[in-house]
Amino acid sequence: MEVIDIARLEEAVVVFYRSTSQEQAHLHEWLTNVQTSKMAWQFSWQLMQLGKSQEVQFFGAITLHSKLMKFWHEVPPESRDELKQKILETIIQFAGGPKLVLNRLCIALSAYIVHMLSEWPSAIEDVINTFQNQQIPNVSNETQLWILLEVLQAIPEEMQAIYSSVKRPVLRAEVAKRTPLVIETTERYLQMQLEREWDTESFNNMTRAVKCVGTWVKNIGFPIENCVNMVDIILKIVNKCYWPCTQDPDGDGCMSADENDLAETCLKTLVNIIIQPDCHVYPKTAFILIKMFLDSLCNITKMEWKPDNNNEDIVSYIYTLFVSAVERHSQLLLSGITTTDPELSSLYTRLVHEILQCTDKPGIYPVEESCSSMALGFWYLLQDEVFAMTNAEERLKCWEYIKPLYAHLTRILVRKSEQPDENSIDKWSSDDLESFRCYRQDISDTFMYCYDVLHDQILDILAAVLDETIAQLQTNPNQWTKLEACIYSFQSVAEHFDGEETKQIPKFMRVLNEIPYETMNEKLLGTALEAVGSYCQWLRGNPMWIPSAIELLVRGLNSSMSAQATLGLKELCRDCQLQMKPYAEPLLNACQSSLASGQMKNSDSVRLMFSIGKLMSLLTPDKIPNYLDMIVSPCFEELSTICQSGAKTPQARIRTIFRLNMVSTLFSSLNTDIDDDDLPIEDLQNMQPVLIVMQKTMPIFRQIAELWVEELDVLETACAALKHAIVNLKNSFKPMLQDLCYFIVAIFQTRCCAPTLEISKTAIVIFYRDEDCKALMQQLMIEFVMHSFKLFEATPENGFSNIAETIETFYACLMQIIKKIPQSLDDKSIAYDRLIFYALKAMTLPENGPIRFSIQFLSHFVMQSRNYPQMTQAVLAAGEEILRTATVCVACVTPRQQVEKFADIFLSINKKYPAEMAVWLKNIMHAPNFPTPLVDDADKTKFVTQVIREKVNKRLLHQHLTEFAIKARGLSDKFQ
Question: Which residues 6+ apart lie within 8 Å of 143 measured at CB?
Answer without folding.
Answer: 95, 96
